[in-house]
Design a protein that fits this description.
alpha+beta; 13 helices; five-stranded antiparallel β-sheet; five-stranded mixed β-sheet
């Protein structure tokens, strides 16, 4: 072996053959451990044999030699993994989706879980250690870029609850970190490296079982920020970035939001600067606008329409000018009028419909104030029918008077 290419994964505990021969063998019950399925070492050995990676395993003076033996299974040839000539219960297809990055991650995390380390080059005495040594330039490349896949040597710039934010050394990343380890690639570039340290479920191949759990932890982490510059970066995140696309409304973030984040977000919402639509909607909902916030001055032309509407109403014995009337700019297309606190509010667009539609809308709100009954109530429906009945009687009287005059 070339000593310079060697990567040594060093564990303090003696390696028991059960670890690579029995399925589901794991005694890692400590929540601080990164792995606990008991399959990672078996995956690693199988994949290294499949990819022709040169490696050795030594533990407390013992040497384990791994190889393969070909067997036929239903007409197909398979390579069964062997240890010191004995067949194990799996083939080199075990861990089919794994690559060298997965292997490095697994062996590195195992070393950390056992209080060990990873070293490059030279030789290591295995008399009181377990050493998995790999001599392969491809694994050396994985070692050189380990800082991209692990955050163990990084100091978080913000921590809240069970999550951390780390600064990026350059550019942007798409990595989803759990307990300081990259689990998988996300769909969008990120401004920061986000690391969730507890409370998530992983699949057996060490990827997130439910990505939404990671997203929830990270959104709660983001809104806990107090640093003004970081908050501004999040609020104005570029299009198609993680920070611009993640759904804040999907999670209960209210109790996690800092006063600083809320204040800056509300300011940016008023200025229309928040790029994440779900976050914008959430911030807007914290202090929803009332109809008073949408009031606009009535123009001279609108006042002419209003006076015509009043005349039309008075000609039918509806005297409504005792109520204060204000114009508002409606958010909803169907919002034409509202009666509130002795004031009639009329949407701006109603003034464009002409005096007749304006009079009808004013009459409805007048009746709300007069009767005290709200929309879509039986009582208000009865009040409207009563008005219709009165109008029918007036029309009948006019017809009778007109017929009498003609006779």
């Amino acid at each position: 072996m070339n000593n310079d290419n060697k990567i040594h994964f060093i564990n303090r505990e003696e390696l028991n053959p059960i670890a690579f021969s029995v399925m589901g063998a794991s005694v890692k019950n400590d929540s601080s451990c990164i792995g606990w399925f008991g399959s990672g070492l078996k995956y690693s050995l199988a994949v290294m044999l499949r990819l022709n990676v040169k490696f050795s395993v030594e533990t407390h003076g013992k040497t384990f030699t791994f190889d393969t033996v070909k067997k036929d299974f239903r007409g197909e040839e398979m390579n069964i993994v062997t240890c010191n000539g004995d067949e194990l219960g799996y083939t080199t297809e075990f861990g089919k989706q794994w690559n060298l990055e997965n292997i490095y991650r697994e062996l590195y995390c195992n070393a950390l879980d056992e209080g060990g380390s990873v070293e490059q080059g030279g030789d290591v005495d295995s008399s009181n250690k377990t050493i998995i040594t790999i001599d392969d330039h491809r694994m050396l490349e994985e070692h050189y870029q380990k800082d991209s896949n692990f955050l163990f040597d990084s100091i978080p710039i913000h921590t809240a609850g069970d999550a951390q934010i780390h600064s990026l050394k350059s550019g942007s990343v798409r990595r989803l970190y759990y307990k300081g380890v990259k689990t998988q690639e996300g769909s969008y570039d990120m401004q920061y490296a986000y690391n969730v340290t507890a409370g998530l479920e992983l699949t057996e191949d060490r990827t997130l079982k439910y990505v939404y759990q990671w997203n929830e932890a990270v959104t709660k982490l983001i809104v806990s920020l107090t640093d003004k510059k970081m908050i501004q970066n999040i609020l104005t995140a570029e299009k198609y970035s993680f920070e611009q696309t993640v759904s804040f409304e999907s999670y209960c973030i209210a109790e996690n939001m800092s006063d600083e984040f809320k204040e800056i977000a509300q300011e940016y919402e008023r200025k229309g600067k928040i790029t994440n639509l779900s976050l914008s909607s959430y911030i807007k909902g914290l202090n929803p606008k009332t109809i008073e916030d949408w009031v606009k001055p009535i123009t001279s032309n609108e006042d002419k329409q209003l006076q015509e509407a009043y005349k039309l109403l008075e000609s039918n014995d509806h005297y409504v000018q005792g109520w204060d009337l204000k114009k508002f700019e409606a958010e909803s297309l169907g919002h034409l009028g509202q009666a509130k606190d002795g004031i009639i509010y009329i949407a701006q667009k109603v003034f464009l419909m002409g005096p007749r539609e304006l009079a009808i809308t004013i009459l409805e709100e007048h009746l709300h104030l007069k009767t005290g009954f709200g929309d879509e109530t039986r009582q208000f429906q009865n009040a409207l029918f009563e008005e219709i009945g009165v109008l029918m009687e007036k029309v009948k009287s006019l017809k009778e008077a007109n017929e009498y005059a003609l006779s």
